[in-house]
Amino acid sequence: MSTQTSPHPTSAAPARATRQWRGVIEEYGDRLDIPAGTPVISLGEGGTPLVESAWLSEVTGGSVWLKVEGNNPTGSFKDRGMTVALSVAVGEGAEAVVCASTGNTSAAMAAYAAKARVKPLVLVPQGKIAAGKLAQAILHGAQVIMVRGNFDDCLRLSRGLADDYPVALVNSVNPMRLQGQKTASFEIVDVLGDAPDVHVLPTGNAGNISAYWLGYRESLSSGESRKLPVMRGWQAAGSAPLVQGAPVTDPETVASAIRIGNPASWDLAVEAARASGGRFRAVSDEQILHAQRELASSDGVFVEPASAAGVAGLLLEAAEGVRYDGQRVVVTVTGHGLKDIDTALSTFTDLVDTVCDADVDAAAAAAGLA
Amino acid sequence: MSTQTSPHPTSAAPARATRQWRGVIEEYGDRLDIPAGTPVISLGEGGTPLVESAWLSEVTGGSVWLKVEGNNPTGSFKDRGMTVALSVAVGEGAEAVVCASTGNTSAAMAAYAAKARVKPLVLVPQGKIAAGKLAQAILHGAQVIMVRGNFDDCLRLSRGLADDYPVALVNSVNPMRLQGQKTASFEIVDVLGDAPDVHVLPTGNAGNISAYWLGYRESLSSGESRKLPVMRGWQAAGSAPLVQGAPVTDPETVASAIRIGNPASWDLAVEAARASGGRFRAVSDEQILHAQRELASSDGVFVEPASAAGVAGLLLEAAEGVRYDGQRVVVTVTGHGLKDIDTALSTFTDLVDTVCDADVDAAAAAAGLA
Fold this sequence. Notes:
Largest sheet of chain A: 6 strands, mixed
Largest interface: A-B, 121 and 121 residues
InterPro entries (chains A, B): Ser/Thr_Dehydratase (IPR050147), Ser/Thr_deHydtase_PyrdxlP-BS (IPR000634), Thr_synthase-like (IPR004450), Thr_Synthase_bac/arc (IPR026260), TrpB-like_PALP (IPR001926), TrpB-like_PALP_sf (IPR036052)
CATH topology of the largest domain in chain A: Rossmann fold
Number of domains of chain A: 2
Order of helices and strands of chain A: HEHEHEHEHEHEHHEHEHHEHHEHEH
Strand order of the largest sheet of chain A: 1-2-10-7-8-9
Pfam family, one (chains A, B): PALP
Cofactor (chains A, B): pyridoxal 5'-phosphate
GO molecular function (chains A, B): L-serine ammonia-lyase activity; pyridoxal phosphate binding; threonine deaminase activity; threonine synthase activity
CATH architecture of the largest domain in chain A: 3-Layer(aba) Sandwich
Helix content of chain A: 25-40%
Oligomer: homodimer
CATH class of the largest domain in chain A: Alpha Beta
Strand content of chain A: 15-25%
Binding site for pyridoxal 5'-phosphate (chains A, B): 104, 204-208, 334
C-alpha cells in the first residue's frame, strides 16, 4: 500500500504497548507545569489530525498542513486546556468551576466538569445571550446564571467566587489552560519531526497563539525541534484589536469565536508575533466565509467560521503574491463546523441542485456523467 | 501523577517513531482486505477515545467503557468505512461516488470525496428531505439530485450509475465499508488488552454490529485477543425490525440515524448476535433521550440521539435487575451530539437557571454555594 500523503515513517518503528491516544495529560504529563499528584480528568482530547492540504499547498507553493482541532471531544481546541484546568482544580479540592463565557470555553468546561463530577457554573450578562450558544454547556449540566450587569461584571463575579468559595476559575486567566493548549505544538513537532517554518492561526482572545509559542519554545529547548516558526495571527476585520494596536469597544464579526475586543493574552500574543518575526493581520467576514466553504469542499475539512480566519489569511496573501515555496506551513483550524451549521449554510442560495426522473441515464445526465 | 482512570501501561513502553495517529488505513492496512496498491485517502479518522464511564459502571456493576465515535472527522463512525471505500474507489479509477442517504453516510462520503477530489453525488427522494439533514454533504460540495421516486428508486439508480459509469457506489452494500469499520474493534482490543465481555451498540442498518463482530473474530484469530464478546444491539422501539423479526414499513423514531425499517446487513447482524450469544432489543424514544441527557451530564459525552440507544439499553437492563459485575462492557456511541442540537435541547424546558445581581455573594447564593 502506498502512503503518498504521509511523512510518517511506516516501517521499523518499534511498537508502543498501545498505539491508542491517551489524552494530553497522560501523553505529555512530564512536560506540563502542573502540581505533582494531580489526578487525570480526560475525555481523550488531543491527538488531533494533522492533514496535508493539497489545495492550500498548490495555492501557496508551500507544504501546508491543517491541525484539525474540531476533532476534540467537545469540538474545539479548548478541550486541551480544560483537561488540565479541571484536573488541577479537582486536585486542589474545587467543588465547582466557573467561567464567564458563551461559547467554546463554557462547552468544554461543562463537559470536563461533568466528567470530574464537580459543578459547572456559567455566568453571562442577563438578556444578551442566545440559548443556542450555550447548548453544549446546558446539555453537559451547567448551571447558567444570568447576571444583572455586563460581561466585565460576570468576570469580576467569577473571580470573586474563586476567591471566597471552593470554586475554580477556568477562564483564560487560569494559567493551566496554556499548559494544556501548548501540547498542540508538541503533536505537530512529533509528526513533522521539527517545527514548521510558519504557523498560522485565528486570533481572538489570543490564548492559543501564546500557547503554541510556549510549546514551540519548549520543543526547541528540549531538542525535539531545531527551529521556531514564524507566528502569524489572523483576526476578523471587525474585531481586530491586535492589528489596530488598541482595544475594540464593539467588536463585530460572523466569526463569533474570535469576536473579542480586548484579548486576555494581549501581551503574550504580541510577544509571540514580535519574537518570531510574525505579525497580526485581518480578513473580512466575506473572506472568512469563502475560506470556510472552500476548505470544506476542497479538503473535506468543515470548520466553524472563526476557524477559517487563518485559511482566509493564506488566500489573501496568495492573492497579494506571497509565496511559501520550500516552506512548511501549519494552519490551526480551531473548531468543528457542526458548532454553527446555520452560518455555514447561509452562504448557499440553493441547497438542492437537480431534480430528475427515476431513470439511470437521467440521473447520469443530471450528474454531468452522460 | 496518578493515572487512576486508565488501564494503559504508562512506563517502559518503547516509543514509536511518532505517537500521533495516522488514520485507519495507515494504522491497520495490513489487516484490511483491500486491493494491493490502494492509495490512502484519509482525514485522520479512527483512534477515537475509549473512555471509562464511572456512572454506567456504578449503575451496572461492570466496568463500562464508551467508544466515542463522534470524535471522527465528520462526527460519526461512518468515516472509518468511508476512508476505505473512497481509497479503493480512487484506486479503481472512479471519477465520482454516489450514495442514497440523507444522514451521516452522505456527510462522510462528501468529505472524503472532497479530499480525494472526486465528485460526490447524493440521490434522495424528491421533496422528502429537510435541507438541514444534508448540510454537511452540501458544505463538502456534494451534488444533491432529487429523484422523482422513493428511496428504493434512489438506491436502484445508484447501483445503475455504478454499473454503467465511472462511479463507485459507497452505500453500505459496498463491502469496503465493513473493512474500515471493523478497525474500531482492533482499537478496543488494543486498549483493553483483550476483547470486552459484552459489546453494546445502537442498531439501525446493522452494518456496524456486523463490522465489530468481523473485527473481533479477526482479533481472536490473530491472537490479539483471547475471547469474543457477546454482541447486544439496541433498536428504537418504533424502528425495530431485528427485534420483531420482520421489516418495518414506516419506521418512526427521534433517533434518525437508526430509523431504518429493513436493515441492509440483516443476515450478518443476526448471525453476529446468534453466534455471540447476544440479541436485539428495543428502547423507547423517551428512554433514548433520557440516556442522551444523562450521558452528557454524568460523563461529559454528548452524542446524537441514535447514539444513546445502547446506553438506554444498559439503563433499561439495570432497572430490570441485570448486573454486569466482574465484566467489561464496551458501549459504542456512534455520532456527535452537535449533529442534532435541536432534538437534544427539546428535552429542556428552561435553558437559564437563575438571574442574580452583580454581587459575589448573590452569585454564590444562586449557585447554591453560600
